[in-house]
Amino acid sequence: MVVSLPSLAFLGAGSMGGAILRGVVASGIPVDGGIVATNRTAEKAATLDGLHGVRAVALADTPSGNTDAAASARIVLVGVKPAMVPDLLREVAPVLREDAIVVSLAAGVTLATFAEGLGDDARVIRSMPNTPSTVGKGVTGLAPGAGVSGDDLAIVRRLFELVGAVIEVPEDKIDALSTISGSGPAYVFLLIEELTKAAIGKGFTEADARLMVEQTFIGATALLESSGEEPAELRRRVTSPKGTTERAVAVLQDAGLDEVFARATDAALARAKEMAAGR
Questions:
Q1: Keyword NADP on this protein (predicted)?
Q2: How many CB atoms lie within 10 A of CB 79?
Q3: What is the C-alpha to C-alpha distance for residues 32 and 143, in angstroms, rounded to an integer?
């Protein structure tokens, strides 16, 4: 049985909001009441043209676009830049439906900030999705506020499960989650970039280097998913004693790769806390 979603409003359908929106559309699930997405310019709104069931609104042409969209939706996803969130909340607070669930896509913006703008009784959920949601392979962390019921959380969980896996966490863990799954795709792409450069340095053409590296990452993650084995066990199977892979892995371990990832995620977490403090 196909289960529908209630009406959706994406206030700021930029990179992250747009990723979730496209993932929902690609899933084919019915959305009762449709989807409205706002962007500041006509050019950005035009990028959503052709998406089935989506009404794209340019705020430059329709200044009331955010309030119109928020008033019509059961689930209101806030995807504007973090610094813009307080003003947006004050704008839409008077028109929100009584049963509205507000979902934050804004990194570093706390539930307390939403309570200040919408009232302590507002149903607010902080989310931290990642961009693979566009292709249905995302990871989203959800941290519900005090006003959120079990049914509210279930609806929002169903929305994000359309575009990948969902982890429910307390709010004090959402920023830490963002340093792993939220920023994680960038780490993977950086590894692909650097290994591709290494392949080119070995004399391969850029096309062949990209094919080797990208397909290796795709294949390795597919093998991990299908095998059910731990990554360490799969690594051991590739690493023959006294072989070439063992020598390469030793170099990576000697370089302190574990410490590098710890430092990188610590830096991301520190920045999230700065953003939450308005810096």
A1: yes
A2: 26
A3: 25
* Structure token pair of residue 211: 């094919």
Q: Are 68 and 62 in contact (CB under 8 A)?
A: yes
Read off the pLDDT band of 1 (50, 70, 90). very low
Helix residue ranges, H only, the chain: 15-27, 42-46, 65-72, 85-92, 111-118, 150-161, 174-177, 184-201, 206-227, 231-238, 244-254, 257-276
Instruction: Say if residue 99 is exposed, middle or buried (CB neighbours under 10 Å; 0-12, 13-18, 19+).
Output: exposed
The predicted model scores a pTM of 0.88
Alpha-carbon span 250 to 245, nearest angstrom: 8
Cα 108 to Cα 227, 231, 259, 278, distances in angstroms: 36, 31, 25, 9
Residue 256 DSSP symbol? T
pLDDT tens digits, residue range 69-98?
999 999 999 999 888 999 999 999 999 999
CA angle 38, 52, 60 (to 5 degrees): 20
Burial class (CB in 10 A: 0-12, 13-18, 19+), 35: buried
pLDDT tens sequence across 186-222 = 999 999 999 999 999 999 999 999 999 999 999 999 9
Q: Which residues contact 184 (CB under 8 A, 6 or more apart)?
A: 130, 139
Number of neighbours of residue 134 by Cβ within 10 angstroms: 20
d(CA 59, CA 70): 13
Binding residues for NADP(+): 11-16
**Domains of the chain by start residue, with CATH:** 8-174 (3.40.50.720), 184-275 (1.10.3730.10)
Q: Provide the annotated binding site.
A: 11-16, 66
Task: Give the residue numbers of the binding site for NADPH.
Answer: 66
